[in-house]
Amino acid sequence: MSPARGGQIVASIRAEPRSFNRLVARDQSTDLLTFLTQGRLVRINRASFDLEPWLAERWESSADGRVHTLHLRPGVTWSDGMPFTSADVLFSVQAVFDRRAQSVLASSLAAGGQPIRAAAPDAQTVVITFPVPSGPGLRLLDQLPILPKHKLQGALAAGTFASAWNAATPPAEIVGTGPFVVREYQPGQRVVLDRNPRYWRRAPDGAALPYLDRIVLEIVPEQNAELLRLQSGGTDLSSSELRPEDYAPVKQAEEQGRLRLVELGVGPDADAFWFCLKPEVKGKDPRFVFVQRPEFRAAISHAVDREAFAHTVFLGAAVPVWGPVTPGNTQWFWPDVPRYAYDEARARDLLAGLGLEDRDHNGVVEDARGTEARFTVITQRGIGWYERGTAVLRESLARVGIAIDVAPLEFGAMIQRMLACDYDAMYYRPVFTDLDPAGNLDFWLTSGSAHVWNLEQRVPATEWERRIDTLMLEQAATIDPERRHEQFNLVQRIAGENLPVLYFAAPRLYYGHSVRLRGVVPSVLRPPVLWNADSLSVAPGE
Amino acid sequence: MSSFLARRLLFALALVVVVSSSALLLARLAPGDVTAELGPFAGAAEIAGTRARFDLDRNPASQWVVWMARAARFEFGDSFLYNRPVRGLVLRAAANTAVLALAALALATLVGIPLGIVAGSRQGTGAAVIRAASLVCLSVPPLLTSLLLVFVAATTRWFPLGGMTSVAAVGPSGPAWLADVAVHLPLPVLALALPIAATFERLQAQAITDALRQPFALAAVARGLSARDVVLRHAWRVSLRPLCGVYGLAVGALLSGSFVVEFVTAWPGLGRLTYEALRARDIYLVAGCAAMGGVFLALGSLVGDLLLLAADPRLREAARARSGERQTA
Amino acid sequence: MRRAGQGLLALVVLGAAAAPWLAPNPPDRTFPAALYAPPTPVRLRHAGLRAPFIYPQRVVSALERRFEEDATRPVPLQWFRDGRLVTVPDAGGGPLLLLGADSLGRDTFSRLLYGARTSLVLAAASTLLALLVGALIGGIAGYAGGVADETLSRLTDFVLVLPAMYVALALRAVMPLVLPPATVFALLTAIFALLGWPVVARGVRAIVASEREREYVVAGRALGATPSRLLARYLLPAAGGYLAVQATLLLPAFILAEATLSYVGLGFPATVPTWGTMLQEAANVSLLGGAPWVLAPAAAIFVVVLAVNLVVQGTGRAPVQLEP
User: Fold this and answer.
1) Other C-beta atoms within 10 Å of C299: how many?
2) Which candidate in A379, A446, B213, C209 could, as Cys together with A427 as Cys, close a disulfide (CB 3.0–4.6 Å)?
3) Residue B126 in 3-state DSSP?
4) Quick check: helix, strand or coil at residue A43?
């Protein structure tokens, strides 16, 4: 039976969108609205991670992987009826790299540090040229929403692009090629989106998409209230996956036939624990002598029982991990990454090898000069699994003689300390921007802004970091997928041997939605369900 | 009277300036700034641009001067979170909170004062039940009241779980819109009004009991007036005075917005806006919200004073005499 | 009514004082197999009547919060062992969780008892300090009059409207990252006192100002009594009744304020149980239907505030709820 046309669904979001323009804001609500209202040239399918044609229906790539010729889908129009052409694509690329626009996408759409270029031989063709060969290639373009030139070129020319599409903009001005159009925005309350009758995409059976007439995004700032609304039938979807502690009530609601509980899969990001290893800041700290040794971090890795960790921190809904790439990232996960079995004796041996022993019998090990292995761990305040994670770490490490004090901080204060290396150690889940490692160079490269344990180094501080730099730059510029995997597996091995960041468990994610919702294709990436909004429908008669 | 008002207004203005300035400076001095909202790994250029946009590249003192100069022209800067001028945001949130506050105040007054009169002038089971209910309402933490109400609403579906209007609502005006808002009011209004109604009830009961013990009340009973007349005509008027001061405090507190209630019931008001601004270190929004809160607090204490003047002729005389003194001096 | 209030208060204070003896488990002991565990029912019947016992509990699924009792193996409660009133050792089928366990598998009942110590002592100390400062400033303003009165009264007004949250944030900013519990205690006491004194000062000022014109004070002054002596001997005692009522108002307000302040990072570390930090976990209302015992800390706060209000009620004064 084919899905029914019509009906509306209500989803909750936790914060207002900061803009309707994804080029200038990267918050979750803006991202979601962009999924609903805008199109891109090519799309990464959030469930299979495959590259799909979208506004470009086919393309050819040059042998060196630098030049891609994309043929735009004919007959696509903007929601206000204007034809969609290659000029819009050129405009969007230009806007990303316009200095005054300060686009948040500028760095992720560059290859080898230089912007990509776009040219348009005719109205239906776009040629994208990468400055250097690029491993991810066209996959990068999934991040770039194509914006309407006829609506925004004035703002870009006037230097007001950053504030052009805000809450005060009349909804009719916000046109797109996505399945829905903004009908109304009531600040502090909701965004109402209507079906875009000019949407180009059709279902396999030829039915016009989207099926739904309307999507309402209700702003519910409090997560407990959000869950309550879902449970009571006030909303069909929530903004994010369930917290582990919310599983039980949703499961109960499913048994009563009120909600449906879906397993999204293992999350692509794991909780991480690392020490600040910046020699310029920590060099004089007497503890740095042993903290900088990989053996010290290996001892910590051995000291943590990952099964028990997954059980306590995620109530069992997690799998043990030993590296940043989790089994949730099916394309790049490497099962042979070095593993550290739970072995407290081995941990104590490693510490003793560094001269760390409990000389004064106070339960904390110290080196020959009497420096205790005692650290303050910062983490974000008010998040259940961070609290549990740090508590389990404290108990695990205490058993091998490493003492940690936990300091939960407000998000802003935590980030400030992190950037200034004003902390001993940190427990947090840094979210990778991309599943493809070449999209996360800011994490892997020593010069990167997300190289968390030693940010933005001028020269690599260690030999192994230098090797990762070389390998990652090669990997990002390699076209052959198999070769890219070999290079990245080697990077994972080096990281696993030197342990700049320790990983313990990756959560298994669950999501709850109303029983009347049809066509759900769950994804571990956000938005978990609405990425596929044009194919969602509601059961008829409800 | 007018000079009394003028002095109060001047003090209120000073209060607003001091409160918003200290909010601005304290928010500036607290650790972290709004650039954390850009995400942990934002680029350096983006961070520098954002700092410049919110004058975070100036030192706190010169930022304050710039802000004051703009504020004097009723320009309060932009909000980072909402990408819009603070003024419109704060005014709309304040209006939403005012709807809530006035409804809660009306409910608390209409429920609390009559019950207080009953409980204060009678004895027996009825009065005891009222007293017990008030004590319970006074003893529940506000967070819990609102969460429990949301929970009750979720299980019974008697009223909407939160928000101010429902999806189908059209345009922010007209009777249909008002009706829609009215449907959404019970939950947050109950959460806000219950403890205040209980406070009013207890104060009123106490004041009536005291008033009934005074000679004039005894004399009225001796003259043969009915108990009902004594309570309503004589005792009640005398008992109003202690209520007036608390009334002003309640007005101020309600109008500046309860963060807990607005957050839990998703009411788009001033309390929630203030909290969000503080959390994100959205500095000009913080200052704007504090200024609005200051206005409301000052307004509340003004209302309290005016009520006190209206209720007590002696004070009215004193105020007149005092302002006369100043003028001649 | 007053009796009932006093009785309740006495019970709570006794419970707090005897916490190490009454608590079946150490407050920071985590039981990994008991995350979100429900209360262990204490039973009397197993093949006929017998001494109080429990069935050992086993976790079936932590995620679904399902637990199973082994109804074939009654485990008797052990009285007066290891310095505790009643407990069940882990090895022998424990733990005994009278009010269930929290998200880390810690015994809620034991934490409630220990939490009462911190929460109640903190509230009491803050109340005393607020009364002291308020009485002093109000007393001086009321007695001196003139410029001093004007200055102190304006200062009082200003502090009254000072946004408490910002003060807390700014204070936290200048403190080191990890504070020992004793420092947190002192800091919170100072903040509460700072927030509490203006209300006290206002009332005391009014009372002292009217009292100083009375004959006995005028006479005292004529006889050469110093102002400080007059204040201490005659004027402040006149405000005694008022101060007593204020004390009963501030105490419950401060218990609740501890919960509010831990939101902005001014609370105790997670290892120290307090009612305020425990209350935060109760905020997950979706648990409410299936696990009403998470509300235990809220119930404890409710009982104390109710008891205080009952006592005030008995004295014939009307209670008022203060915003924390």
Assistant:
1) 16
2) A379
3) helix
4) strand
Domain that includes residue A200, residue range? 1-37+178-265+510-542
Residue A192 sits in the same domain as residue A308: no
Q: Helical H runs in A66-132?
A: 86-96
Instruction: Give yes or no for B38 touching A (CB within 8 A).
Output: yes
Query: Chain A within 8 Å of B152 (Cβ-Cβ)?
Result: no
Span C108-314: which CATH code?
A: 1.10.3720.10
Dihedral of the CA atoms B81, B82, B84, B85 (nearest 10)? -60
A155 and A187 both lie in a single domain = no
Within-domain flag for A237: yes
Ranges in chain C annotated CATH 1.10.3720.10: 108-314
Q: Into how many domains does chain A fold?
A: 3
Please answer yes or no on whether C252 and B30 come within 8 Å at the CB atom: no
Q: Which two tokens stand for residue A45?
A: 């399918």
Contact B30 C306 (CB under 8 A): no
Q: Which residues of chain A neighbour B32 with C-beta distances below 8 Å? A: 410-416
pTM of the entire predicted model: 0.84
Residue A169 lies in a domain: no
Residue B205: which pLDDT band, with cuts at 50, 70 and 90? confident
DSSP sequence for A342-360: --HHHHHHHHHHTT-B-TT
Residues of A in CB contact (< 8 Å) with C are 224-225, 227-228, 231, 244-249, 251-252, 308, 311-312, 315-317, 376, 378, 381-382, 384, 387-388, 391, 395, 405-410, 413, 417, 423
A38 pLDDT band, cuts 50/70/90, is very high
Mean pLDDT of the A170-177 span: 93
| Cross-chain Cβ contact B143/C279 below 8 Å | yes
Chains in touch with C (3+ beta-carbon pairs under 8 Å) read A, B
Q: In angstroms, what separates the C-alpha of B172 from chain C's closest C-alpha? A: 32
Q: Is B30 touching C (CB cutoff 8 A)?
A: yes
Instruction: Identify all chain C residues contacting A224, using CB atoms and an 8 Å cutoff.
Output: 283-286
In chain B, what residues touch C302 (CB-CB under 8 Å)?
139-141
CATH code, A248? 3.40.190.10
Disruptive mutation site among B139, B282, B314 for chain C (greatest number of C CBs within 10 Å): B139
Q: How far is CA A366 from CA A345, A372, B99, C191, C323, in A?
A: 17, 4, 62, 38, 49
Looking at the fold, whether A238 and A367 belong to one and the same domain comes out as no
* C143 interfacial to chain A (CB closer than 8 Å): no
Per-residue pLDDT tens for C119-163?
999 999 999 999 999 988 988 888 887 788 878 877 877 777 666
Range in A128-132, A421-425, B315-319 with the lowest mean pLDDT: B315-319
Nearest to A520 by CA among A510, A531, A509: A531
Domains of chain B (ranges; CATH) run 86-328 (1.10.3720.10)
Q: Is some CB atom of chain B closer than 8 A to the CB atom of C252?
A: yes
How does residue B180 score in pLDDT terms, banded at 50, 70 and 90?
A: confident
pLDDT at B165 over 60: yes
Give C302's contacts (C-beta < 8 A, 6+ positions apart). B139, B140, B141
Q: Say yes or no: A276 and A351 in one domain.
A: yes
Tokens of B113: 């004062």
Q: So what's the pLDDT on residue B191?
A: 86
> Across residues C227-252, what is the average pLDDT?
74
| A403 lies in the same domain as A286 | yes
